[in-house]
Queue: 4 jobs
Job 1
Amino acid sequence: MRRGFLWGATALVLMTAAVGCSSSDDTADAASTGRGAASSSAGAEPGASGDAPDGRPGEPSASPAAVAADGTDVEACRDGDCEILVTGPLTVPLDGTYVTEISLELDGDTVDFTMEPAPGTSIGGGIGVGCVAGLTIGEHGGGSRSACGDNATSVAPPQGMLLRATQGGDGVIVEITTLR
């Protein structure tokens, strides 16, 4: 009996709260505040309409997305060092110090890479956002190691390449560095 009373009381409180949250006179409220009913941000997250988190208009609420220094221009990588936005499959020309090109393909927030350092050999793998891949490349092939977070630079080989992935606006930014 007591359990039934508690369930009934709980249901009554929830129904009262639901009715108290809705207003049947949004037009009157809009007229008195000077804001149209359509511009009401009830239920929206702070800053969702471009307002500051405290609701002040005109101030941005989030920092802009990172932008790749070289945009989507793969030719900027021809010298062996660049920062490009990957949004789909790319073949990136390089300077030939270790390889003449690297293939990149976006897979969610991971970029898959493949290259051929010597005839009949290939190096490949995937690099996620916030991670670095160190590519050791020699005359007869090579290998790759990757790490994320604070250990990311520990994978840098004495000679080879580094690939670093960061979040970009519409894809993943990949920084390619040739270590000479």
Job 2
Amino acid sequence: MIKPMTAGPQRMSRTGELTVGFLTRTPRRFQPYRGPMFDRLEIAIVPPGPRYVAHLRLLVSGEDIVTGTVGEGGRGPYAEHALAAEHAHCLAATGERRRLELGAPECTGGCRGYLSADVQRFGPVVRWSDWQVPAEGTRRPDAHCEAGDHDAELDRAAAAWRRTRM
């Protein structure tokens, strides 16, 4: 009969380390799979107010990109322009890189600049990159969305806009 070889008595320390004689190791903790991570685009339609017509609120992975970059009081693209059928979704991504104006500060952009980004489709991925932010704004990292989810969110927002227009 073969006996397993040990380096001495085993015991568990207060910190959770397993000590076997002179050997010490920390038990492995469960690590969830951390494969490719995609950002999620969400579009909300902000109803018209006293100063602006209806505009879009764009969230990337739950963060409002206009408020987070431009500041409070900023506005996103006008809903009429961004979601109207005749404009064929100006936020839609194609294989060709396009610059999109995504927001302006409360002073309408002329005083500090606009928030804009390049959008382009790479097969199953849509990339929002090369962010240009207003003066004193924080530049955003690139965003990568699954193309199917990106297109579905644009279609959902356009359908909601059409319902409010009827």
Job 3
Amino acid sequence: MAHMNNDAPLPPFEPTALPHHWVNRLGFALRKELTTRFQDAGLSATAEDWGTLLILSQGAQTPSQLSDASLRDRTTVTRLVDRLVRKGWVERQPDAEDRRRLLLSLTGAGQAAMAEMRAIVGPLIAETGKGISAQEQQIAVSVMQRMLANLQGPTVD
């Protein structure tokens, strides 16, 4: 590890000039706005609920898979899943291939909740993309994907 010279002045640091700042700020603003819109529509749901249901809408997952997919620790995922189970949107079932493992999946009520949430999410996505071309949005997606890959490091198959 390189030794830093403590006498050298630090380079100027302007967070608002970095995409990281704006990604983080956008994420916080979207979660807040989405939760508010769900509540205004009479849905007892949060942005975190939406994100979890969205992952599970792709198919059943183990808690570990859900933790990996959501980039959340197992304790947080367990608490979130407990809440979704209480709402009747998610169920835990033993894995038919390995009964020691649980699989998490959407219930019919969870699928219905997802449909209601999609009706709220769609307009929000459209609003946030207003004035931004499809090409600009694709560039932003590509850059964020590469930044995440840089952070996560090389994958081993």
Job 4
Amino acid sequence: MEISSASLDDLLSAVAADRPAPGAGAAAAVAVALGAACASKALRISGRRSKDVQLTSIADAAENLALQAAAGAQEHCEDFPDLLAAPHDPRAQRRVRADGEATLDLCQRLRAILDEYGDRVVADLAGDVAAAAHLIDAAESIVTRNLAELGSPGPL
């Protein structure tokens, strides 16, 4: 499945299907993408209204994180079935672990944007900032659990 070009209905059906991917790891990355998109919107509109060029620039950075997270969802969707097919294959384990760690990195980067600039968002867009924060929390929880299930990384 090509996540970035799937309709929402198709994505939901694919996640709900009785096949391994896309699953929770891809869903976590999609949550980060949605959170980053919400943050980007709030920052961009706030920047325009307040004529704050810095917020517009930070909105671009958040949008870039959304695109990276969407690509990460696709990578997880492609890598996870390989792990299920060969659960003791260190290469498959490393790829899935790297996918999760990349998602966590995006969460941290987006959280840093929210921490530094979230209070500059106009009041009527505070819900978008809150949504971004909650989506990050959900993604971090999912990925942390997935990584724990993988166990400690094997030798490179």
